[in-house]
User: What shape does this take?
Amino acid sequence: MGRRFQAVALLTTLLAIAAVTAAQVRVDVRLVNVIATVTDARGRNIPNLTVDDFILEEDGKTQDITHFSEDQNVPVSVGILLDTSGSMDRKIRTAIEAVERFTRRIHQNDEIFLITFSGRAVLQQDFTDDREKLSQVLRHVTATGGTALYDALSEALTKIRTGRHNKRAILLITDGQDTASSAKLDEVLQTIRQSDVLVYPIGISALTYAKDFDVFGHGPLAALLAGKSARTVQSKRDEVDFNVLRALSENSGGRAFMLAESLINRGGQIEKILDAIADELRTQYTLGFYPARPDDGRYHLLRVRTRSGNAVRARRGYLAKMGS
Assistant: This one.
């Protein structure tokens, strides 16, 4: 009887040690979330998929998806970055009206902050779900000065961490390249790789060829998407560098758009883009997994696909920051 008691006690102790060890491993290994947008051959978002429809790989190895959700009713913390540099003067009113429409188009439970940037970035409105408060702030925005694009992004990426919702997105509207920041593009991209935030940049281009752009990335813009440098066709310092916007979106799993300046004040083109973003935020999937190893300070490649072969857009990797 004594030996049986000792055996039971030993087994209980071993199970307790195993549980503690497993808990310690789980604490040391960070949950990695990947937001995926799935579309059909016509570019329409596909709803109602299940976890069994997805395959998620890290560094080429299939991972167990331990967390899964379809984000139809998931609230979002949103940061809006609005370029108010001098070159935006002719289109600032249209951009503001489009942003106001966007804030009312997304879910009422979504919280939003607003940063404007010209020569410096300014937090105009902290997180709020009060749309009228945002409208009041937007009505007093004016355009003047340079373009501190990277500083605004750095501030937004810091601010978005304080959002109360797990799903987070940044909307960026700009008509130029950075001319006034102390932050660097590489620093901004590294921060994006360490975070779960989606970045949606909209570039407003004054170039005449931009009039032929399809706002959803078709037409002549396809040459840029195929990898040709935007700098080969742009010479002005205040022109949009689509390569930068694309890098911001691809590192986050978001989507970059280009819009001709000639179209912004007619035809509701910017409204169409913002409506598409608002719809996308409600038809995405969040997939979570625990990597096999603790954070190691390295960049790890990610790939998400569906078993049926649908087009999937998600961030291409993440930086496993040690001590994060």
The chain has two domains: 30-72+285-324, 76-281. The radius of gyration is 22 Å.
